[in-house]
Amino acid sequence: MVSIDTEEIAPTGYAITHSRRALVSRVISSSIFAKSERLSSFLSCVCELTLNGRAHEINEQKIGTLVFGRPEDYDSSIDGIVRTQASRLRQRLDLYFNGEGADEPIRIVLPRGSYVPLFERRLPAEAIPDLPLIPAENPPLLPPTKLGTIENTGRSARLPWILVTILSIAILAILIRNREVSSRGSSPIAPHPLWSLLFLPDQSTIVVPGDSALVIWQGLMKKNVGLADYLSGNYRKTRSGTDATVSQASAVELGSRRYTSIVDLDIARALSHFGDLRKSSVELRYARDVRPNDLKQGNVVLIGAPEANPWVELFEPNMNFVFSNERSREIYSVLNRKPVGTESAKWDSQYNDPLHRVYGVVAFLPNLSGKGNVLILEGTSMAGTECAWDFVADDSVLLPFLNQIMRANGTIPYFQIVLATSNMNGSSVKSNILAWRVTN
């Protein structure tokens, strides 16, 4: 354990500046940052401005322009890319300085509410007196996937869901407004081997976030819901009789709500921006409002595994990597239908895994009519879904893979990938490819 003595960064001499630049270099070269070019660029940008005595110039607008390629006049109140990535940057910095960089004498901190980094001198652990442990006022939060144990009732139990509903509605409103923003004044963007296939000029791409209420229902009832039952809505009907448990009664109430995760909405927001850049538009659909014909017309992005987005089931007959949830054993797996060589037949993600291993799948497939494309981003948890998104959103890892599978004529075939990552407080850290397939 270390304590922190905070000091404002000031370039007081070449030696100090040089040592701090070296620290930044070590951080972005670490395994925590190695596969995240965006976060590395973010950290390098704000640290370099500060070390050059230009900390007063650092703001959300400037970072959005310099790091994320936004136009100088972009509306940061709609496009929250900087705020989202700043939160992830803080998490990665914590992981580095509590792990690989635990012996660093100086720590880089990005204070909440600010984008100006601080270098903090860390005191050795022996200099800190032992403090008595203070019991937490609140019990520890249950893992989000172990929903069957939630038994809270009354107004206090409903409050979090009310807040989630309000937050989801607010973010959905922002996304709907954002998709109307015209990109006609932006500079032409170079073709991209994947995004140019999903976002066509003057055409809409449907984006379908996961149904978190469905995930909650299945967790409380300890049952899986297939696409047929999802479409009929029978699973949401009130349980008859007087033997319903508190969890089952809560499931009935929550099953009819419209919840989705912040991870899914962040992905939808980013996809909307990709569409704007290519003079395309994003049509946001709640999973419960989608119909089979929607998956036959044009391009679609499905976010979430079948547990959250049952529409993925329609594409599983043509997929080699599919999901399986053994609720009785609390194991969520990615199945490898036809292993090749030394590949595993499945990859298990256990709810109580001390290593926090989770998995993501990216699948780029033809739509149901064969006349459009579908991108599926799914995971064994929210962190797994985020891992799938991080892979396709980061050209430093996506493009080398696409170049590897690219046809001689410069086009890419349909593909599927399994990724492994670690779940740290609901976010994915670093990932690696476990297996992949291509189909022509």
UniProtKB/TrEMBL annotation:
- Give TM regions: 159-176
Has UniProt tagged this entry with the keyword Transmembrane helix? yes
Protein keywords? Membrane, Transmembrane, Transmembrane helix
Q: What is this protein called?
A: Adenylate cyclase
Species of provenance: Granulicella mallensis (strain ATCC BAA-1857 / DSM 23137 / MP5ACTX8)
User: In the record, what lineage is assigned to the organism producing the protein?
Assistant: Bacteria, Pseudomonadati, Acidobacteriota, Terriglobia, Terriglobales
